[in-house]
Amino acid sequence: MTERPNRQILLVERPRGKLEESQFKLIDSTIGDPGPGELLVRTVLLSIDPANRAWMQGRTYREQLGAGEVMAGGALCEVVAANGAPIAPGSIVQCEPGWQEYAVVPANRILPVAVRGALSHHMSVLGITGLTAYHGMLDVGRPKKGETVVVSAAAGATGSVAGQIARIIGARVVGVTGSDDKNRLIERDLSFDAAVNHRSDKLREDLAAACPNGIDVYFDNVGGRVLEAVLPLMRTHGRIVCCGAVSQYDSATPAPGPAGVPGQLIVKRLRMEGFLVSDYIGEWAEAQGQLAAWVAAGELAVLEDIVEGLESAPRALIGILAGDNVGKRMVRVAPDPT
Amino acid sequence: MTERPNRQILLVERPRGKLEESQFKLIDSTIGDPGPGELLVRTVLLSIDPANRAWMQGRTYREQLGAGEVMAGGALCEVVAANGAPIAPGSIVQCEPGWQEYAVVPANRILPVAVRGALSHHMSVLGITGLTAYHGMLDVGRPKKGETVVVSAAAGATGSVAGQIARIIGARVVGVTGSDDKNRLIERDLSFDAAVNHRSDKLREDLAAACPNGIDVYFDNVGGRVLEAVLPLMRTHGRIVCCGAVSQYDSATPAPGPAGVPGQLIVKRLRMEGFLVSDYIGEWAEAQGQLAAWVAAGELAVLEDIVEGLESAPRALIGILAGDNVGKRMVRVAPDPT
Q1: Does the distance separating the beta carbons of A254 and B260 come in below 8 Å?
Q2: Which residue of A190, A203, B210, B315 has the smallest Cβ count within 10 Å?
Q3: Do A274 and B270 touch (CB under 8 A)?
Q4: What is the domain range of residue A22?
Q5: CA distances to A78, A139, B315, B324, B326 from B181, in Å
């Protein structure tokens, strides 16, 4: 029995209001060998996502996070040892070790990663957020050439890919972000057709001006007042892809829903549909092939936002909830072994 | 040039809050001959629908109603004279004469009705509300045998048919109405499996008790707090059919939307979709054939609520907004000519 030194970040209490650094604690601990059917993995890149905060609010597609637990989170990890599982040490896997340097995970809860190109791409454009953008836009939103597509959190990990996919298939793409700097970036580097700042006090008018023909597809990462502003601009038979509701995650009390539900849905025969990327797992390999091809062809720019050190994770999460990231945020916990 | 005496009900002012009888006025007037391409029709059965009130609030799928106009509304009418249109006097047509005894309507804005059985059935089960129930339930909601379907305004014109269709195809059907009397009626006469009173102060618990397996399809006629109570009970991949939002029509200020939008849609991958029956016009004949067959077989009970006299129309509309009807409400303006 080997005991290795480990470092872990615990969620010491559930936030009542906004998430704060004091609700986390970094501790030194040790970790033992994997049991039968388990792997010992080393965390390389830890994924930081708004959903991490939503897991603290209550039951979602997973159990609510509890006080005193190692903070949950997905990561790209290197296999250190496998107990009875046919996977070689040194392999890269996608799994959920939580916020710690080493973890023991069940072998049936990992996905092997065939690394091609930069490892970080397997967390951004080829990872969960890239796949979320791909399936959400193409399978749920289904924009057609010439249609107007609006994407919120458009400089974020999912939004930046979702908007570019819509542009690649020939839609007019309008991004919504929370800063003029981000808007310049998505117009210049990602070739969005227009951009709107959601902090504007005339958001609805700005959106209307950017979408003179109305909106056919809204890829919603934020919910709240952006969703409310979009609803009256939707065109008949428009589609709203419910991907995230980041505006509602960092709070104890959920806001009322957007005015116009269900009225606008009826009058304009809108379809508003939620999805989880896990529903499409059988199609991920094909999606990754297409995404990688777009990247290789220079059609899809990859935005990444890598923060150094496990101890930075709480600040990185709190920041992403306030929108301080550009592209896919991750925390580097160990050097890239590839 | 013949001038016939006519009686009309005007909307004399748009309601600011709740609709009142004083906002209507019955006047005597005259009506002339139809021009080229027009028909003179006599109103037989006038359709009273919550949507009549929604038309006063603003632009919907039609222009907002204005003060001083003849109140708008659909009807089954008898053709009195046709000027250049190939339709025989005495024919029954579905059209929109408004609230008046006689009207001149464009020949290209009528639908001929091949009357079979009771004329009133062409306004209830075979009319717009029956077709709305049919297409909304089967084409938008798509319940499967064994699934749980909840229908609000379940004793109303659309809800009573929608719920029975779901029951016919083998779903477990739970109705929501605003009275215990209506609940007894839908359970006893329409064979709903269970019924919930939305005036209960523990609506959510009552719904949960009536739907122990959760809700697969919610056919929503009301919006508001019933929709809000249903959302947390929806099952993964559930569908919400946005048919109406009656709870929001009789008011000047729209309420906030239901909490849980878009959060519940994402977590449970729900589809929430609005529709208008007019989108399915090419399939109406087939739908009417099926509905008539179910009625003939005794599988589909028809609930009608016929009020006598044009002058009763304002009170009939105000009443339907408060839920005082059972089944399809209509106003008999002239004796049945068939």
Answers
A1: yes
A2: B315
A3: yes
A4: 4-124+303-332
A5: 66, 45, 21, 11, 10
Contacts of B243 in chain A (CB under 8 A): 266
Partner A contacted by B309 (CB < 8 A): no
Same domain, A114 and A179: no
CA A186 to chain centroid, in Å, comes to 17
Give the count of beta carbons closer than 10 Å to the beta carbon of residue B56: 22
**Which residue in A has a C-alpha nearest to residue B273's C-alpha?**
A271
Domain count, chain B: 2
Say if residue B148 is in the same domain as residue B106: no
Q: Are residues B134 and B268 part of one domain?
A: yes
Q: What is the pTM of this model?
A: 0.95
Sign of the torsion angle spanned by Cα atoms A173, A179, A182, A187: positive
Q: Is B60 on the interface with A (CB under 8 A)?
A: yes
Q: Which residues pair with B6 in a beta bridge?
A: B29
B245 → chain A, closest CA residue: A263
pLDDT along chain B (338 residues), means of 10: 92 95 98 96 98 92 93 98 94 98 97 94 98 98 98 98 98 98 98 98 97 98 96 98 94 85 95 97 97 98 98 98 96 96
Q: Are residues B60 and B162 in the same domain?
A: no
Beta-carbon separation of B274 and A267 below 8 A? yes
Do A195 and A264 fall into the same domain? yes
Residues of chain A in contact with residue B60, where contact means CB-CB under 8 angstroms, are: 267
* CATH at residue B52: 3.90.180.10
Inside any domain, residue B297: no
pLDDT tens for B109-143 read 999 999 989 999 999 999 999 999 999 999 999 99
Please tell me the distance in Å from B27's CA to the nearest CA on chain A: 32
Q: How far apart are CA A231 and CA A19, in angstroms?
A: 30
Count of CB contacts below 8 A, A vs B? 116
Contact A275 B266 (CB under 8 A): yes
B61, B268, B274 member nearest A262 (Cβ): B274
**216-235 in chain A: CB under 8 A from chain B:** 220, 223, 227-228
- Say if residue B262 is in the same domain as residue B199: yes
Q: What is the CA radius of gyration of chain A?
A: 20
> Of all residues in chain B, what percent are helix, strand and coil, respectively (each to 5)?
35, 30, 40
For the record, the structure tokens of A257 come out as 């829903």
